[in-house]
Amino acid sequence: MHWSSKEKLFPQLLETYYLGGMASGVQPKVVIERAALLQPDLIIKTFDDEFPLLTVNEFVCMKCAQYCGLPTPNVWLSDNLEHYIIERFDTDEHGNKIGIEDYATLMGKSGDKKYLGSYESILKATAINTQSIHEVEKAFSLITFNCLIGNGDAHLKNFSVQYDSDMTNISLSPVYDITHTIIYPTVDKDMALKLKKSKTYPNRKDLIDLAFDAGISRSKAGEIVDNMAQNIQQCIQDIAEIEAMPNLKQSILDHLSKVMTHFPMVSPYRHKKRKNTNNPTFTLRNTLRCLIFLFILSGYVKPNLTTQSRQFMSSK
Ligand SMILES: Nc1ncnc2c1ncn2[C@@H]1O[C@H](COP(=O)(O)OP(=O)(O)OP(=O)(O)O)[C@@H](O)[C@H]1O
Ligand SMILES: [Mg+2]
């Protein structure tokens, strides 16, 4: 995306569109509605001195989310890196509003309580409101993505559900506002919400436990976490824009390997440990098992049976 004027774009956008429609949040942004341009509604974000190149950071993270298969709106980065543009997902192709509710509202909390809660409660609220394990899996995937990418600002207002036009079906909205926050020195290095009663970033096992407690099998959760870790790695190798922000690639990689500690990120995930039948201990153990079985059959060894099974055996 290119802007050729010598004048700065963002102040002009502010002047023209500031009152045209507001999106809340702390990052400087304007909303451009479709009545003004022959294109979908857009939100344009820029950055200030505290968070340099937040535009590049958010663009890269959204591309990684796309690689991970999360539902993402179209996004663009301006050539001069000053503007990050995201298509609005709360209007349909005819310009009609789609009902969106963030998790603070869904849980009956005011906006200033957006950092008070847990990722467990997000999964619980998803299950209660959507009655769908598929949506719970989507919420778990988004939580996992935030943990892996190092987004310490994944608070209650950065998760939303959307409603069908007849308000019958409720599902997770596309994702938004994802950045690798831990690269900024003024941002604290913890997460926005608690997981297992702590705001410290979890490891792979903690994430699998979180999923399991929400009704997702451990093997499915492991698959989600491992696929995401690999897709993020792939994305940051592929995407040229990442080079525009010094140290972004290395910082994401360092964080990713911390969360995935003790787990090899590059080799594909194996569900079951394959047994090494050439291992002498394995062979000896099996030979002993066979011998004990043969002794039981021939009556040399009496297994420790319960009273019920003794009665059952003697009645035969
Ligand atoms: N693509 C989008 N379509 C529709 N609504 C959106 C979109 N992106 C963001 N929003 C809405 O606008 C709000 C503010 O946007 P966003 O979270 O990106 O801003 P922010 O300033 O980075 O917020 P924060 O206070 O979390 O740092 C979001 O909470 C969400 O409700
Ligand atoms: Mg936000």
TrEMBL record:
Q: Does the keyword Ribosomal protein apply?
A: no
Q: Under which name does UniProt file this protein?
A: HipA domain-containing protein
Which UniProt key words apply to this protein?
Kinase, Transferase
Pfam families (UniProt xref): HipA_C
Family (UniProt) = Belongs to the HipA Ser/Thr kinase family.
List, alphabetically, the InterPro entries matched: HipA-like_C, HipA_Ser/Thr_kinase
Annotated PANTHER family: SERINE/THREONINE-PROTEIN KINASE TOXIN HIPA, SERINE_THREONINE-PROTEIN KINASE TOXIN HIPA
Q: Which residues form the HipA-like C-terminal domain?
A: 23-234
The answer to whether keyword Transferase applies is yes
